[in-house]
Design brief:
This protein has about 450 residues and is mainly β. Helices cover about 5% and strands about 45% of the residues. The strands form six sheets. Strands 18, 20, 21, 24, 25, 27 and 28 form a seven-stranded mixed β-sheet that branches. The radius of gyration is 27 Å and the shape is elongated. The N terminus and C terminus are likely disordered. This is Arrestin-like N-terminal domain-containing protein.
Length: about 450
């Protein structure tokens, strides 16, 4: 594809903040844990060769309008991929013999939450317009090409401002692309080129989907856990490092043992602070449990009896507010120390291994993607849990955040301490989808 002339890139000021002028209520689940945004993007040690994706309009052999997008997507990627603070860049080609019929060329970046097939089942949270050229004057009207090409470079904003149903404005971080086969909702980004012909003639339009990934990282862990990572030693327990753990105390598990007697165990479930974890790493856990007798604690204190999972929640708005819950990880446990012969307590260390493909947490109107560490009653032969006190039977639940990057500074990445003898248990199918009561204002 030849290019006879190339003009200076069209840049959009980074200070310009898009505003989605759609009045929809927000969909807010719970306040998400704090995490820091990425302040800068360090250059990779070995820059990846840019990848080009080309889209055309018109005769396949001789298109009159074409778009080439350049990104750092992996070779063979289906669509261009961009990360936070990167520019959407590329070239628009207009065939020379079509220039006289075109009045303007505009670029549009759109971000949408899609919950169905009809036009009313989508919410536009990002609507960014970048005029490329106009014959009648105004922005970039001087850029009349002698050849057939314009280059462009448009910075992606970190945040977007949305007008809420109550008349207020709220700013949200741009969510990452979310497209999954079995998910009832998606987050989609499109880059649109519009070649305007004027009245009584249809415009030419190219619509290209691209992927977007935000950049977020946890705050540093406690100093004692940093030292443990640096020295390759075990991380300290909640008793030795109380500031490094978030502990749920007095978690009660009741049930019947061997169909003969009622038992009650008191547990303390601890999650490593901060409650933000990088995908591809681990989520450290610690469990202390106390029971009425040795038979009870020996049976229910076995690592395979403890059920703690990472649950993903997708809340979205369609005809009403709906929610889908999926189990995306399960904790593996091992004894923290050998128990004393007559001790009625047990201490166990645990981890949830986070897969690299977890989508980061996000919260925008009409779509909330959140994660929870959920503890269920023990599972052991001879033990029957008591009647559930919650809708899904859990006994404890903590909201956590999934980030895309490791903490700043010379801090080693979290180490997996799971002993070889304790393999990660298989996930159980805990996928649930149901309608929930709306907690947002109506229009």
């Amino acid at each position: 594809m030849s290019r006879r002339h190339s003009l200076a890139p069209v840049s959009l000021a980074a200070s310009q903040q898009p505003s989605a002028m759609f009045f929809l209520p927000s969909l807010v689940d719970e306040e998400l844990p704090c995490y820091s945004r990425r302040d800068n993007l360090p250059s990779p040690s070995t820059p990846r060769t840019p990848t080009e994706h080309t889209y055309t309009l018109g005769d396949g052999k001789r298109p009159w309008l074409s778009l080439t997008m350049v990104s750092n997507a992996r070779a063979g990627a289906v669509v261009p991929q961009y990360h936070e603070k990167e520019h959407v860049r590329g070239t628009v080609h207009l065939r020379a013999d079509k220039r006289d019929s075109i009045q303007a060329v505009n670029l549009l970046i759109k971000g949408r939450v899609i919950t169905g097939a009809s036009a009313g089942d989508s919410f536009t949270f990002l609507n960014l317009n970048a005029p490329l050229w106009s014959r009648s004057g105004g922005v970039h009207s001087e850029n009349v090409p002698e050849g057939d090409a314009w280059q462009f470079s448009i910075p992606l904003p970190i945040n977007t401002t949305v007008h809420m149903g109550d008349g207020s404005e709220r700013t949200f971080a741009l969510p990452g692309t979310f497209l999954e086969k079995d998910a009832p909702v998606s987050v989609k980004y499109d880059f649109v080129v519009i070649a305007a012909r004027g009245k009584l003639r249809s415009d030419g339009q190219i619509n290209a989907t691209f992927g977007y990934a935000p950049s977020s990282r946890p705050l540093p862990p406690s100093i004692y856990r940093q030292i443990a990572y640096q020295q390759g030693t075990h991380i300290p327990s909640p008793l030795a490092d109380p500031e490094g753990w978030h502990t749920r105390r007095d978690v009660l598990v009741r049930g019947t043992l061997f169909c003969a007697r009622q038992v009650e165990l008191t547990c303390q479930l601890s999650l490593a602070r901060p409650l933000t974890y990088t995908r591809g790493s681990v989520l450290p856990l610690y469990l202390t449990m106390a029971g009425p007798d040795l038979e009870c604690v020996d049976l229910l204190g076995a690592p395979q009896a403890i059920v703690v999972v990472l649950q993903r929640r997708i809340a979205y708005r369609t005809a009403g507010q709906r929610e889908q819950r999926d189990e995306v990880g399960r904790a593996v446990w091992w004894p923290a120390q050998p128990p004393s012969p007559d001790c009625l307590t047990r201490d166990l260390e645990g981890e949830i291994h986070l897969t690299k493909d977890l989508k980061p947490s996000c919260n925008v109107p009409s779509f909330v993607l959140s994660y929870h560490v959920v503890m269920y009653p023990f599972e052991a032969t001879g033990f029957k849990p008591g009647p559930p006190t919650t809708s899904d039977g859990h006994v404890a639940r903590e909201l956590v955040d999934i980030a895309t990057m490791h903490p700043k500074g010379p801090i080693p990445r979290p180490i997996a301490y799971t002993p070889p003898a304790y393999e990660t248990p298989k996930r159980r199918n805990r996928s649930l989808s149901f309608a929930v009561a709306s907690v947002v204002p109506t229009l």
